[in-house]
Structure formats: C-alpha cells, structure tokens
Amino acid sequence: MIKVVFLGFGNVNSHLLNALNKNTEISVIQVFNRNYIKLISSFEHIQFTDDISKIAEADIYIIGIPDDAISRFSESLAFQNKLVVHTSGGAAMKVLSSKNRRGIFYPLQTFSKHRKVDFKEIPICIEAENPNDLGLLRKLGETISENVVEISSEKRAKLHLAAVFVNNFVNHLYEIGSEILNEEDLPFDLLKPLIAETASKIKTLSPEEAQTGPAKRNDKKTIEKHLHLLTDSPHAKLYKLFTEQLNQKYGKEL
Length: 254
Ligand SMILES: NC(=O)c1ccc[n+]([C@@H]2O[C@H](COP(=O)([O-])OP(=O)(O)OC[C@H]3O[C@@H](n4cnc5c(N)ncnc54)[C@H](OP(=O)(O)O)[C@@H]3O)[C@@H](O)[C@H]2O)c1
Prior knowledge:
This protein is an alpha/beta fold. The protein folds into 2 domains: 150 residues, Rossmann fold (3-Layer(aba) Sandwich); 94 residues, N-(1-d-carboxylethyl)-l-norvaline Dehydrogenase, domain 2 (Orthogonal Bundle), CATH 1.10.1040. Helix content is 41%, strand content 15%. It is built from 9 helices and 8 strands. Strands 3-2-1-4-5-6-7-8 form an 8-stranded mixed sheet, with helices on one face. Helix 1 links the parallel strand 1 and strand 2. It is elongated. The N and C termini lie far apart (62 Å). The site of NADP nicotinamide-adenine-dinucleotide phosphate (NAP) has 22 residues, from helix 1 and helix 2.
C-alpha cells in the first residue's frame, strides 16, 4: 500500500486524487490546503488539514500549487527526508527544498476543474534523486496510467515548451477564430467539426502530412484576401507570421 498526501488542491491534485483514490494499492490519507476546502462527499473519509504542522506521515507527498510558489512552500514543510514531488512541467526538480528527497510526478495533460479526464492515456513523467524513489513513483503512476516515462528536468522543460505550442497557443487560435466569427454573428459551433478532425487525424498522420491550406499551397490570391479582411486587426501580424513560416517550411515564395 502506497500512502499519499496531497499538498495543495487545485486542478491537478483534485484530478489526481480522483484517479488515485479508486485504486486499492493506494491510500490517500490526507489533503492539505492553506485555505479551508470542503472535500466532496465521496472523499469524506479523507482527512483534511489547513495546518502545515499537522501534515500526516506518508510515502509520497504531491505538491500541486503554482510553479512560482513551489520552492518556498517546500521549504516551509516541517518534516525531512520524505519523498516530496511536484506536478509541474516547467519547473525543475531542484526547485524543491533539498531537506526532503525530491521527485517529479508530471501528468502531461490540460486539466480544468469540471472536465473529466481518462488518466489511462495520460503520460506521467517521473524523475527522482534515487532509484528506490523512482521505482515508487513508477508504481504510483502505473496504477492510473499505461504510459509512465522517466524524463530529466532538462528534457521535461522542452516537453513543456512543446506542450505550450500544441495546447495553449492552439487554444488561443480558437479564441481568435471565435472572435472573427462573432464579428459576423456566426456561431463558433460551425468550426467544431474542423477542430475535431484536425486533432483526430494527427493520430495517424504526421503534422507535415496533415497540413493543408492557402499558406502551404502558396495560394497568393486567398492570402491577400485574408490580409485585406484583417486590415486594422491585431491578428494580421500573427496571420503573416504563420504564413511566412509555412512558406519557408514548404519551400514556396510568398
Ligand atoms: N492545470 C493544468 O492543466 C496543469 C497540467 C499539468 C501540470 N500542471 C502543474 O500542476 C501544478 C498545479 O497546477 P494547477 O493548475 O492544479 O494549479 P491551481 O489550480 O492554480 O492550484 C491552486 C492550488 O494552489 C494553492 N496555492 C496557490 N498559491 C499557493 C501558495 N503560495 N502556497 C501554497 N499553496 C498555494 C491553492 O491554495 P488556495 O486554495 O488556498 O488558494 C490551490 O490549492 C503547477 O505546478 C502546474 O504547472 C498544471
């Protein structure tokens, strides 16, 4: 039985608790949060504390708080020589205080509070300072995911960078698409089948094979028309940048 305590209870830790709590090999014994939170009824058996001096004994402590707060928070923990991990993609393992054994338990997915996720398919990136702790993190990860991978802090930083491009930036492009349709009173729903197919075809095609559109085809007329429609728009800059990059990549002049 692996005993787990959650430190912080935001998006990631609440999803992790949900997933880990279903497993008989895992015992979630406590949730710490600096402010009081009421755990939902299915977690009523789990102890809650907002007192940092009353954190229970466990095999693994999972910190799930904003990246820039991890360092100071881990330093403020009252215990020593325990396995303490964080769940960040972008923060190095060494931001954790060295008074405890350090590790990483990074689920590579976007988590929002009321969206259910299937952990089975989510890569869990692990790292630890010693082989025993790495083994324990692997065991913990494998209770919820079929894809547990050991990745160094340096490589994880790059993985996180790539994730920002394919998730946050792509989502920002949805926002732009939605704004453009709004100007014509058209519903964003019209774009959803296209968005779904774009995400779906990447399962079987490489990004290069999947790419289509006026920039790849170097369809100058359409590009000029789009730029005309974007006159005075803050999005013209991004349109030109993407078009230039795609032209460079696919070897055609603008
Ligand atoms: N969200 C994602 O999609 C995602 C995906 C993968 C990894 N991550 C990583 O997972 C970690 C947690 O992200 P999240 O999205 O779950 O964050 P979040 O929802 O913003 O987390 C909020 C939690 O952090 C606590 N907190 C905030 N500032 C604190 C401080 N200074 N000291 C102690 N506790 C503090 C909050 O406590 P109160 O309730 O008391 O304010 C709350 O429990 C981050 O390292 C993030 O990079 C996030």
